[in-house]
Structure formats: structure tokens, C-alpha cells
Specification:
By secondary structure, the chain is α/β, with parallel strands linked by helices. Helices cover 30% and strands 21% of the residues. Helix 9 packs across helix 14.
Length: 568
């Protein structure tokens, strides 16, 4: 038990400090994993936590800045190894950690121990985290405790470093426990991704290395954005923190993913949000990384575009997962593959595999807390461990598309119009149907060739009727101009100068349904192309995007000479 090495520590301290714990991080991944479990160490029990960075990882770029943003106390490695602590906790082990003067508890920083990293382990058979090179020094095991996520890993450790078996303890997977605890917030987490109004969320997950999804198919996020109708799907990408750290945000976000980001891709920052993204997801398109594994554990519809063959332990649950999970053909029809896999999805089919890593469901926080408290010399607590729901996601948005290639169909007898929009990507030469643009589109050639032009800002100047008239004068061949008025109400100008105010019809006791003004403009152009006459719109139409249908009513105004307008 230690108050402070400083003789003035007790004099200047405000908080009770009976125990000092050192959180040891090597990468952003290990840092975020520790942040999942450190709340188990309660401040009311006199436990104070400091951080240090164990140097030497190729993936440590940005780590000091991240820790600084958290407001945690960060000690240099030199200071951390020159003082005594009551406990040290790490989510990635390295032989240099033997220099710490504290009982060291290590645990996995992913879904178990699966990846083969010979540069770290010294051999091609031991998974990272359970090798003799990492766990011993001069023939002695230096961690005080090694956390395993499942009993099966005892057999693995018996093969890779049997002398570590006496200090190995099954603690389950605290991260997965926290995800499961947060499942009731699924609707809340879907909102920031825009997975509302009938849109379904596809999470693209890539681990690091040349064998990953991004390493094998770097174009896949852009292809998904280009091939999935924007009113039916939203696509978000989750990249392993090592990708960001090693290559840097400029090369990842501003170069590799720039076109996809402009077209509507969402990026989940490496520091926060991937757990919420999995909870919110309808599909996970991934690889052999832990995020895809967790997605399967949550029973999300999961497809793998890369399997990591050759860099995961072939006897591991991850390798079995890579063999058994449905595959995605990156060169095939992505839309059809997603729908087919969802139809064929059998709930629980992959659970026998994921359960081999995700052990002690419901008990993990208690098991880990009891282990940490035992190392501190504290008795097990009778209270339930404090586990907070995962934080709300904050996905990064690009500017969003301003140009769409649109197709659709009309059923006149049912007054129903189906609209399917696709963002126009670089290199797009041939339209599927017709073009719709927003007023922000800067390509004058595309703007001039559009059938539909939309102003999406309801507070823009000039007033909506004046803007629609100016746009019609600028583009005499234009079919439809739409100016947003609010979420469910828009002003429309049809070819010939007919003005309409469109509003969605709400059922009693409900909010007014939201309607994208671009979808409205596209629906009206399709209606006109199918022979629909403006005078029939007073009966209203139904606009369908995917499985969502919205009823729209119209109030018409036809400008007449000298009379201002006449209503119909």
C-alpha cells in the first residue's frame, strides 16, 4: 500500500489514495481496452490510476495526444519504471514490462489470442500475448496474472508457455460484456449514423496488415457506397487503430477514403464508436479482426471479404470463424449479396465458434474486478461491478453527395412512385437513369444535364418561389426544382411554371414523416415521365424507397397573368 513516493504527497493530495495503479499502454487499441475495464477500480476504495506508454511499438503514433485528450495523468516510461506501484495493468504484454516494480496483470486486447506475429513472439506458432518470449525473462514468468477470455486458452497456453499456467485466470471478455449490456440502446446508437427512415446500416470492418479487408480490397468501401441505394443503406467504416497509427489520417481519410467520404461514407474514429456501430449495424462486412468476430457474436449478418489465412493460429476460434462465416465476393453484385445473406441468415449459427473466445458471459466484470482486487490485497466486493454503457458514436461525415444517378418506377393505378438513388462517383460515365443535383453542385456540366435540382437549406435566400423561378430561368430544360421548407414540407416547381407545396401526411398521434427533398423531386420527375399530369397530384402520391413508403399531399399554385395565383 502506497500513498506517494513524494514526502509531500499526503500534504498536497485531495483525493484518498491508498493504492496507486499503473495502466500500461503500447498502442491505441490497448489504451481503449484498458479504458473499458479501469472503471472497475473504484475511487471510493482509495484507488488512483496513472498511465504510462511502454515504448517501442510501430503503432504508437498519436498515442500521447490521445491520452492527453483524456486528461489522464501520464508518466514517462523512465518514471514509471523507477517507482513502485501497487498494481500494473496492461492489455498488451511486452518483455520490457518486466522492469515495472508492481504485480502486473495482462489481458487480451481483442477477442482472445489469435494473431501470429513472429516479430513479437519469436516463433510462427504462438499467438501474440501467449508466447514464451513475451511472458518470461531468464526462464521466469514475470506477469503476476494472465487473463484469458475462455477456458480453451488454457490448452493453448499449455502448448506455448506451460510455465505460465499457474498464473493464468479466466476473466471472460469485459469488452464484449459491455457491448451486450448496451444492446438496449440500439435505436439511440443508430441515429448518429443516419440509420433511420428505413435506412439500414452496413459496417465495414478492417483489421491491419496486408491480409486485412483494406489490405486486400482497398476499393471496397467506395464500391459499396456506389452500389447501394442511398435511401436504403448507410455505410460506415471501422478501421483498426493500427491502420490509422501506422499510415496516418492523411493517407487513410484524406487520400484512400476521400472519394467514398464525399459520396456519403461515414468513418468511425479509432478512439470511440466501434462498439456502438456494431450494436447499430444490420450487416458487418469484415475480415478476421476482432470487430467482425464480435459482430458475429452479436448475431449481426456477417460477411467476410478477407480471412487472414496465414496470420492467425489455424486452431483458433478466429480461424474457424474465417472458415465458416459467409464470404463476400468484392467483385460481385454487392447489393444482391447483402440481401441474399440477410435472407439466408440463421440466428446463432456462428455462436458455437464465437463462444470459444467470448467466455464467462455476464460474469466477466466481476471476475476481472476480483482478480485486480486480489492483487491489491483487497477482499472481493459484494457489490455489482460498475459497467457503463458504451459511449454514443460520433461518426465523421464528409460533405455528402451533391449528384445522384436515379432510377425508379411508377404504378399509376396505385399512385405509387419508387425511387432508387446512387451517388455519382469519379469516373462515372454512363447514367443508369437520370441525374439529380443539389444547388451546391459545382460541376456546371452535371448541373446543366440534371432533370432535378434541389435546394436543401430551408433558410437560404431568396425565398423558395423566387429561387425556383431563377433556377428554371437558368436551366430551361429542367423538369423539377425543389426548395426545402422543413423536414416534411417542400416547395416544388414543375416544368411549365406550376408551383406545388408538398407535405407528408401524418397519422394521428405521430410526428410528420421526414421526406428528403431530392427524393421528392426525383419522384415527381418519374411521375411526369410516366405520363402523370400535375392536375392529378391533388389526390396525392406515395413515394417508396426500399421498404419505406411515405404519403405526400400537394397544394398547387399556377401563376396567372395579373392575378398572382390560383389554387387547385
Amino acid at each position: 500500500m502506497l500513498v506517494s513516493d513524494s514526502p509531500e504527497g499526503s500534504r498536497w493530495g485531495t483525493l484518498r489514495t491508498d493504492f496507486e495503479v499503473l495502466a500500461v499502454v503500447r498502442t491505441l487499441t490497448s489504451a481503449t481496452r484498458l479504458l473499458d475495464v479501469l472503471p472497475l477500480l473504484r475511487p471510493e476504495h482509495g484507488i488512483q490510476v496513472s498511465f504510462t506508454i511502454n515504448p517501442g511499438s510501430a503503432f504508437a503514433n498519436g498515442l500521447p495526444e490521445y491520452l492527453g485528450s483524456l486528461g489522464v495523468r501520464v508518466l514517462s516510461w523512465a518514471e514509471a519504471t523507477s517507482r513502485r506501484f501497487d498494481l500494473a495493468v496492461a492489455a498488451a504484454v511486452h518483455a520490457d514490462m518486466r522492469h515495472l516494480d508492481a504485480p502486473l496483470v495482462v489481458m487480451p486486447h481483442g477477442a482472445g489470442y489469435n494473431r501470429l506475429v513472429p516479430a513479437s513472439t519469436g516463433d510462427g506458432e504462438s499467438p501474440a500475448g501467449l508466447s514464451r518470449r513475451e511472458l518470461t525473462h531468464d526462464g521466469r514468468v514475470f506477469p503476476a496474472a494472465i487473463g484469458l477470455s475462455h477456458e480453451e486458452q488454457w490448452e493453448l497456453l499449455a502448448r506455448t508457455c506451460p510455465e505460465a499456467l499457474p498464473v493464468s485466470v479466466v476473466i471472460g471478455d469485459p469488452c464484449f460484456h459491455r457491448i451486450v449490456l448496451s444492446l438496449s440502446r440500439r435505436r439511440r446508437y443508430r441515429q448518429p449514423f443516419g440509420a433511420v427512415h428505413g435506412r439500414r446500416l452496413v459496417v465495414v470492418s478492417s483489421t491491419w496488415s496486408e491480409h486485412s479487408l483494406l489490405g486486400r480490397h482497398p476499393e471496397l468501401p467506395l464500391r459499396l457506397i456506389g452500389e447501394l441505394p442511398v435511401d436504403e443503406f448507410v455505410v460506415a467504416v471501422v478501421l483498426h487503430p493500427n491502420v490509422w497509427s501506422y499510415h496516418g489520417p492523411f493517407n487513410v481519410r484524406d487520400r484512400l477514403l476521400a472519394d467514398a467520404l464525399d459520396a456519403g461514407l461515414l468513418i468511425v474514429p479509432p478512439e470511440r464508436g466501434w462498439q456502438a456501430a456494431l450494436i447499430a449495424a444490420d450487416w458487418v462486412v469484415g475480415d478476421h479482426g476482432s470487430v467482425s468476430f464480435y459482430g458475429a457474436g452479436l448475431d449481426r449478418v456477417t460477411l467476410l471479404a478477407a480471412t487472414g489465412e496465414g496470420e492467425v493460429d489455424p486452431a483458433s476460434p478466429t480461424a474457424a470463424f474465417a472458415r465458416e462465416a459467409p464470404r463476400l465476393d468484392p467483385d460481385g453484385d454487392l447489393y444482391a449479396q447483402l440481401l441474399r445473406t440477410a435472407e439466408e441468415h440463421k440466428p446463432g449459427a456462428l455462436h458455437p465458434i464465437t463462444a470459444r473466445s467470448l467466455g464467462a458471459i455476464g460474469e466477466s466484470p466481476r471476475l476481472l474486478r476480483d482478480l485486480l482486487y486480489a492483487q491489491l490485497g483487497l477482499p472481493p466486493s459484494a457489490e455489482e461491478p460498475v459497467v457503463r454503457p458504451v459511449a454514443d458514436p460520433r461518426p465523421e461525415f464528409g460533405g455528402g453527395p451533391t449528384l445522384w444517378d436515379v432510377v425508379g418506377s411508377v404504378v399509376p393505378a396505385e399512385a405509387t412512385v419508387t425511387v432508387r438513388r446512387f451517388p455519382v462517383l469519379p469516373g462515372h460515365d454512363e447514367a443508369r437513369g437520370f441525374y439529380a443535383v443539389t444547388a451546391d453542385e459545382v460541376d456546371l456540366r452535371r448541373r446543366a444535364g440534371a432533370e432535378v435540382v434541389v435546394r436543401t437549406d430551408p433558410f437560404a435566400e431568396p425565398a423558395a418561389p423566387a429561387w425556383a423561378a431563377e433556377t428554371a430561368d437558368e436551366l430551361p430544360g429542367l423538369s423539377v426544382a425543389v426548395a426545402a421548407l422543413d423536414e416534411g414540407r417542400h416547395l416544388v416547381r414543375l416544368r411549365g411554371g406550376i408551383l406545388l407545396e408538398a407535405s407528408t401526411v401524418r397519422a394521428w398521434g405521430t410526428n410528420r414523416p421526414w421526406l428528403d427533398p431530392v427524393v421528392l423531386g426525383c419522384a415527381l420527375h418519374l411521375w411526369a415521365m410516366a405520363g402523370g399530369h400535375p392536375t392529378t397530384l391533388h389526390e396525392g402520391i406515395r413515394i417508396r424507397t426500399g421498404e419505406r413508403e411515405v404519403e405526400v399531399a400537394f397544394t398547387m399554385e399556377t401563376p396567372g397573368p395579373g392575378s398572382g395565383s390560383s389554387r387547385g
